[in-house]
Design a protein that fits this description.
Blueprint: E1 3-7, H1 12-22, E2 30-34, H2 36-44, H3 50-63, E3 69-72, E4 91-93, H4 94-103, E5 109-113, H5 119-126, E6 138-141, H6 145-150, H7 154-170, E7 175-178, H8 200-208
Parallel strand pairs: 1-2, 1-3, 3-4, 5-6, 5-7
Length: 210
């Protein structure tokens, strides 16, 4: 089985390769496709527009004959997966597996976002109309985090994420989820029993049945 990972940040390749290695999945079973312009377009328009979504769906459709599954690792682009309800090559949004895992946990939950362009899509995913209001997690945007990421200051980016996660716990959250793949390395700043939930492991476990 070969899974295509559509990234908008090249740094996410290492995140997924590390997750695959920890699950004993050969690196050759992942095919990384990095296309930052999709996110750049969405950011300029304040989110994924209908026209951008249609073009992205056409692009993904052209990939389906060559892979057993496609993972959209960018949360801003994730909603386009809804345009592929079935088929021999499922198109999946990585944060959907994170959502499912978080919804299974009891207690107060907080979802942290770094990129403003993903806030609406993330909120819609984690807080769907069919979910009882008391089960809705609180979705928060981390001020200044995305600016640090885009400036290449990854140490500051991860420290902002860690601070926000610690604050959420101090304010009573029992569960904290990091909505974007690029946020995953921040878990190294926490002891194992306190680490926030992240999506790469969950997505690969779903695809490969691990």
């Amino acid at each position: 089985m070969t899974v295509a990972c559509l990234h908008t940040a090249a740094s996410n390749i290492a995140v997924f390769d590390e997750a695959a290695n920890s699950l004993a999945i050969a690196a050759t079973r992942l095919s990384h496709i990095v296309m930052p312009h999709w996110l750049e377009e969405a950011e300029k328009s304040g989110g994924l527009t209908a026209e951008q979504r249609a073009r992205l769906a056409d692009f993904l459709r052209s990939l389906t004959p060559f892979f057993e599954a496609i993972l959209i690792t960018c949360s801003t682009l994730g909603p386009v997966a809804e345009d592929f309800p079935d088929g021999p090559c499922p198109v999946l949004r990585t944060d959907k597996m994170l959502t499912d895992a978080l919804h299974r946990l009891p207690g107060k939950s907080v979802v942290l976002c770094a990129a403003p362009s993903t806030l609406a899509a993330t909120t819609a995913l984690f807080c769907p109309p069919g979910l009882a209001p008391e089960q809705h997690p609180e979705v928060r945007l981390i001020a200044g985090a995305w600016e640090a990421f885009k400036a290449g200051d990854h140490a500051h980016y991860l420290s902002r994420i860690a601070e926000a996660a610690q604050q959420a716990h101090q304010q009573g959250a029992e569960n904290v989820a990091l909505a974007q793949v690029s946020m995953t390395p921040a878990v190294r700043l926490f002891p194992p029993q306190r680490r926030p939930l992240t999506s790469p492991h969950l997505a690969l476990q779903h695809c490969f049945g691990r």
